[in-house]
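ok trying again, last paste got cut off:
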Amino acid sequence: MLLKDRLGRPWPQSKTVDPNEIARFTALAEEWWNPNGKFRPIHRFNPVRRDYIIDRITRHFGWHGKDKADFNGLKILDVGCGAGLLCEPLAERGAQVVGIDATARNIEIARWHAAQRELDLDYRHCLAEHVVETGECFDVVLNTEVVEHVADPEQLMKECCDLVKPGGILVVATLNRTLRSFLLAIIGAEYLLRWLPKGTHDWRRFLRPDEVRGMMERHGVETSEVIGVAFNPIAGRWRLSSDSSVNYMLLAVKAA
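nice, full thing came through this time. structure:
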């Protein structure tokens, strides 16, 4: 599969892109904003992820204690933004949000949905490496449920670190490579419960927190927190947890 930009021009060979993953997400793109569709697990997971990110941004930039943080003046980049499930709530708080995705159809849907809500968002069909080439840097870089889908996670993490301003933060959300994650995220979620299409994840691509931490520290970004995210089947919702054996989020800071 030859990847092309929004004008139909072939992209140069990229170390991070897996064409099979692009094809998979292109086929699913129409489902993004359907809370009961194929992205239903993401819709159920998104509130805890969104609230965690908003809380940590608020704390890091000194707005802790306000009823509603005003993110005016903050530049935020969402790498692998999909159709904008995280971009929109951050833009609603006044942040200048750039969302990028390697799947052209995701970006088209994201732009359409933002327009319906009259939100000012900068969506781009490109890769992190293309943003690095522009020389742009951001107060906050998000890399959520992305790194486990790329061909070269080390390169992607380098690019994300390069895109964080000194004193800024990087948030990574991904899956741990443990026996428990294989049983729950692959066997359970894909084959037994059918929450996700079979083949959505490759367990061998999951990364342990220490592996992600090492990738970031090699590029001047220090981990300040690793926190698990667990599903409560009785309440039917996700919550923050001390158990990071399956899903986890990692917060890191670039030295000022």
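cool. The domain at 19-254 is CATH 3.40.50.150 (Rossmann fold). The first strand starts at residue 75 and ends at 79.
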